[in-house]
Write a structure and sequence with these properties.
mainly alpha, 9 helices
Length: 207
């Protein structure tokens, strides 16, 4: 989380440190991405249990049980990992069209660290704040962060850097908006059969 804060406040020098460190995929995933997703999951899960979320059809507030929150947050974390992997593949492909010399590791670094401001802002979901507002602020900070990260990590010529940043921003915006749409749609009660299945599974969990 400290790195995410530095990427917001001091993006240029922080991205330079990230690029020079040259961390591998496993290191970034295990020691940076997973802990951040766990922290966000705990914060959001607490908010769902303590405050609940408004149901679109009835207007009532539904508070999740701890078991339901665990299942939901686990599924959301897996969905976000899928978003990161898809985003990495797409940005790498786009980098090739802009003559970038970056490999999959550099693209993964850009996406994992570039989305960290979004994860940081999502900690606000521990409070009853509108989810779309939190996402909007977080994704804007992520896009601002990517402006420095794409040319620094992707090893691209300055003449192509702006084009790759623009395309990378579209990828991040589209994928995170899609992920947020489905999770909000679920929370607001539009996937009743899925909600019932989650409740049944949650009732069988041994905690």
């Amino acid at each position: 989380m400290i790195k995410a804060l530095f990427l917001i406040l001091r993006p240029g020098p922080t991205w330079q440190q990230v690029a020079e460190a040259g961390r591998g995929l496993a290191f970034i995933f295990v020691f940076y991405l997973v802990p951040m997703l766990l922290i966000v999951a705990v914060a959001e899960g607490f908010g769902l249990v303590h405050w609940g979320v408004a149901q679109m059809n009835s207007g009532l507030i539904k508070k999740m049980s701890v078991n339901e929150a665990v299942i939901y947050e686990a599924a959301q974390s897996l969905l976000m990992i899928l978003v990161i992997l898809i985003g990495t593949a797409l940005i790498k492909l786009q980098g090739e069209t802009f003559h970038s010399r970056a490999h999959y590791k550099q693209a993964f670094t850009v996406v994992a660290y570039g989305l960290s401001p979004l994860f940081l802002i999502q900690l606000l979901n521990v409070f009853p704040v509108p989810v779309w507002l939190v996402w909007s602020v977080g994704v804007l900070l992520a896009l601002a962060t990517l402006y420095h990260g794409v040319p620094c990590v992707m090893r691209i010529d300055p003449t192509h850097a702006l084009g790759l940043y623009f395309m990378s921003s579209l990828v991040v915006l589209a994928l995170t908006a899609t992920e947020r749409f489905f999770t909000v749609w679920y929370l607001s009660g539009h996937f009743a059969p899925l909600t019932n299945s989650v409740e049944q599974i949650a009732a069988k969990l041994p905690f």
